[in-house]
Amino acid sequence: MTRPLVIPFFIAHQGCPHRCVFCNQHAITGQSAGSFPDVARLGQEIAASLARPRRAERGRVQVAFYGGSFTCLPAARQRELLGAVRPFLAEGVVDEIRLSTRPDYINVGIVDFLKRHGVGTVELGIQSMSDQVLRAGGRGHTVEDSERAIECVRGGGLKVGVQLMVGLPGDRPGLLFKGAAKLAAMRPDLVRIYPTVVLRGSGLERRYRAGEYRPMSLARAVAVSGRVKEIFDGGGVRVVRIGLQATDTIQDDIVAGPYHPAFGEMVLSRNLYRKVRSALAAAKESARLELRVAAADQSVLRGPGNVNLKRLAAKGLFDNVDLIFEDDRRRGTVAVAAG
Ligand code: SF4
N or C: which end of the chain has fewer CB within 10 A? Predict the structure, then answer.
């Protein structure tokens, strides 16, 4: 599938009356709260993005409003931002708008308004499927709000994305996995998985410094996120991002926690290793085996410094294996057969 061209705008913290413990939108988006996007410049930036050279095969073009809670903005501001994209939608050079918001700022009227203004996808900051964790994180909404919002967005004919966090205060893996399974059963169109990090200026920083919150180690966050991804994979739900978006400033703003610019790749590598290990272990009676993996997964399979292949060899699973990379194999899939 051709990847869409996403033209992102960050509405840093604008419109959001809440202050979740983990949130410091200025740090996440790398922009000052309240300063962007300037509507006059928005059109110019879309035009400039569209004018850049691109590969011949054209995916859908989406303008995205991220980094805040879009539907918490005053209606006039929402209209202004969406209106700035309208000429590009009318011309057919932008296909749709996507935006992120809170589950408790969604209802039938809002979905209808968004649809009329060219929005095709709404991403909901679900973060947890446990009321206890939502309370501990100061989210200000409930699981029921999230479930209602998912149905409402879908019922209005828009695609629905969900964002889920790993390592929130008060959470534990068993609770998280149960929540992920519940969410997967609701069949959202896409999922983003974010590890919880302690951002400078966030409520979590105070708790961390007071010894009341301990972030996950990187290795644990990778393992837990990997399991969450497996749950969504098992439910046929697409995970489009794992890990925080790297920005120029994010590392300066992180006080502690499992941040790594290649976090998503580490999770994919962990999951693929486990899949390959099971497939080879199940087939190891054969004298010679062929292991087939997607060509695009080559570096994910190997892991940094070929660590995954070395681990397989150390377990005696890689002695008689011919490794074949296939261009047309779906990423994340593995086939093992007698060679
Ligand atoms: S709802 Fe979103 S923007 Fe608002 S405080 Fe929470 S994480 Fe930050």
Answer: N
* Residue-averaged pLDDT of the chain: 91
List C-alpha distances in Å: 12 to 100, 205, 229, 316. Answer: 11, 19, 27, 51
Rounded average pLDDT over 34-51? 81
Q: What is the DSSP string of 155-175?
A: HTT-EEEEEEEES-TT--HHH
pLDDT of residue 284: 63
Extents of the domains making up the chain: 5-261, 273-338
Determine which of 23-27, 103-107, 272-276, 330-334 has the lowest per-residue pLDDT on average: 23-27
Residue of 32, 7, 51, 77 whose CA lies nearest to 253: 32
Q: Whose CA is nearest to atom 6 of ligand 1?
A: 20
What mean pLDDT do residues 65-93 have? 92
204 in ligand 1 pocket by Cβ < 6 Å?
no
DSSP letter (8 states) at residue 236: T
Distance 191 CA to ligand 1 centre (A): 18
For residue 23 and ligand 1, the question of a CB distance below 6 A is answered with yes
In 36-86, the DSSP E strands lie at 61-66
CA of 24 to the centre of ligand 1 (A): 8
Check whether domain 5-261 has CATH 3.20.20.70, yes or no: yes
CB 141 near ligand 1, within 6 Å? no
Q: What is the pTM of this model?
A: 0.92
- Look at residue 25 and tell me whether its pLDDT is greater than 80: no
* Alpha carbon nearest to ligand 1 atom 7, residue: 23
Question: Is 16 near ligand 1, meaning CB less than 6 Å away?
Answer: yes
Higher local confidence (pLDDT), 75 or 37: 75
